């Protein structure tokens, strides 16, 4: 690879397989951790649809194929999440699950350090109640 060639975060973390493991682990944690109960409560009983949408979103967000946009159009994340009451507890519990899932599925600390700050900023942006 020459100096002008770059790879996406999607490729750097391992592509579809890693995104699949990351999203699966994220929802497993949300579904089982007592400390994620508030976050879990604002999700549907069956998490499979949420998991699929999150996997598709992360794929494009990390620089992979724009699967989410192809299926659902512009993410409009805040608007789509407005019906769910997201306060500080739900936000922090969501981040707890994401951080753990990221640590468990992306071993490279430098890549995690690139991925996490914008995700944390987005989580704060999604909060819609005090």
From TrEMBL:
Keyword line: Heme, Iron, Metal-binding, Transport
Keyword Transport: yes
Residues where heme binds: 124
Molecular functions (GO terms): heme binding; metal ion binding; oxygen binding; oxygen carrier activity
Family listed: Belongs to the truncated hemoglobin family. Group II subfamily.
Protein name per its UniProtKB record: Group II truncated hemoglobin
